[in-house]
Design a protein that fits this description.
Layout lengths: L21 E2 L2 E3 L12 H11 L4 E7 L12 E6 L10 E2 L5 E7 L18 E3 L6 E3 L2 H7 L2 H16 L28 E4 L2 E6 L2 E10 L5 E10 L3 E12 L9 E2 L13 E3 L9 H7 L7 H15 L4 E3 L5 E6 L5 E10 L5 E12 L4 E9 L1
Parallel strand pairs: 3-6
Antiparallel strand pairs: 1-2, 2-5, 4-6, 7-8, 9-11, 10-11, 11-12, 12-13, 13-14, 13-15, 16-18, 17-18, 18-19, 19-20
């Protein structure tokens, strides 16, 4: 199986509790941000009121045309005090403003104008995958937290692509070297978009379009299942791609390959590997993407090339850019078509590639190569 070195990933996905806990400090939300997307808005409002919240409002998106892909009454988002990415572990006053935003047909639609959106059925086809999924998320959440499924997906994909998890023979995996969810000491994956999670059956979550960002800013887009057998989390039915944002399909890697072959222990994730959350401060400290602006890095790259080729060095950034990536340490990698002139004015076409690190005030070219 082709191995690709990528960073592991992260974003701290919030543990979801099946019911809220009320105390003198306030009330916990009954679900984490995003988990109720796709549910019927009436069910969500009921869960919020049962938790003890008293100031629940709705915002209606009159944007449905057929109601096939997105159902009438389907929730788009839930916000707390205007924040759709609220912390579910925080406690809020019972009268905090909560807005449930949902989809429905325009008011002038002739059929069904006066009817409330119908309750969703127990099962329906996932709009992303076409698979039959259970709509009873709350029932599954009570026995198998979706937060654990998210962490298991992150850990499985991390170890599937990691290069430091092999035994001494370099051909077999050493599971004692597998990275945990809390481990951000090396490369890691960060959740760029948590996708849409649905209960597939009584022990399995399905996610569509989960986007994981590597420290090199490449993106894994995955659809997969996570099951719990009482001891371990099993990741299966993986489809999706790995590549740079906006890259053409031929430049994407098919991630379903990680299920190929017999030796794939990374798809079985122990409870031990996901029990601890990540340190938010540590994660933020590792992100240096704002230290070096791309244009500053490009200028340093070009200046370095002009010093090497003083008679003429021109980068074709618009029509000849082959690759550009920024790593979590802030450094930039460029690969671009160039035109070089010698002292006689003779031009030749070539490819320049290199790495620029440092800061806006002090950019540094660490690597620079030119090939024909």
């Amino acid at each position: 199986m082709k191995r690709i070195f990528i960073p592991f990933l992260l974003i701290i996905l919030i543990a979801i509790t099946g019911c809220s806990e009320e105390s003198a400090d306030g009330i916990k939300m009954p679900f984490s941000s995003g988990v109720c997307k796709g549910d019927n808005y009436q069910d969500v409002i009921s869960d919020l009121k049962n938790a003890g919240f008293t100031n629940v409002e709705t915002e209606v998106l009159y944007d449905l045309v057929t109601g096939i892909l997105t159902k009438d009454g389907e929730v788009e988002k839930v916000s707390v005090n205007g924040d759709a990415k609220y912390d579910p572990d925080a406690r809020y006053p019972k009268d905090v403003k909560i807005v449930v935003t949902y989809h429905t047909f325009p008011k002038d639609k002739t059929s069904g104008d006066s009817e409330e959106p119908k309750q969703t059925q127990q099962t329906e086809k996932s709009k992303e995958t076409g698979m039959i999924v259970s709509n009873d998320k709350a029932k599954l959440e009570a026995v198998f937290h979706v937060e654990n499924a998210k962490r298991a997906a992150v850990v499985a994909l991390t170890n599937a692509y990691a290069t430091d998890v092999f035994a001494e023979d370099k051909n077999h995996y050493d599971i004692s070297k597998f990275h945990s969810y809390a481990d951000v000491s090396g490369d890691f994956l960060k959740i760029n978009s948590e996708g849409t999670w649905n209960a597939k059956n009584d022990n399995t979550w399905n996610v569509a379009n989960l986007k994981l960002e590597t420290i090199y800013k490449t993106i894994i887009t995955a659809t997969l299942d996570v099951s719990f057998d009482g001891t371990n989390y099993i990741v299966s039915n993986i489809t999706g791609t790995l590549g740079n944002p906006g890259a053409s399909s031929e430049n994407m890697v098919d991630i379903s390959e990680i299920e190929a072959g017999k030796d794939k222990p990374y798809l079985t994730v122990s409870s031990e590997l996901i029990k601890d959350d990540r340190d938010k401060d540590e994660v933020e400290a590792r992100d240096h993407s704002d230290d070096l602006d791309k244009n500053t890095a490009i200028a340093a790259f070009e200046q370095y090339g002009k010093k090497l080729y003083p008679y003429g060095f021109k980068c074709h950034w618009i029509v000849g850019l082959i690759n550009e990536e920024q790593s979590y340490d802030g450094s930039w990698f460029f690969k671009v078509d160039v035109t070089i002139k010698n002292q006689y004015g003779t031009e030749r076409k070539a490819i320049a590639e290199g790495k620029v690190s440092g800061t806006d005030k002090n950019p540094k070219v660490d690597q620079f190569y030119v090939s024909d």
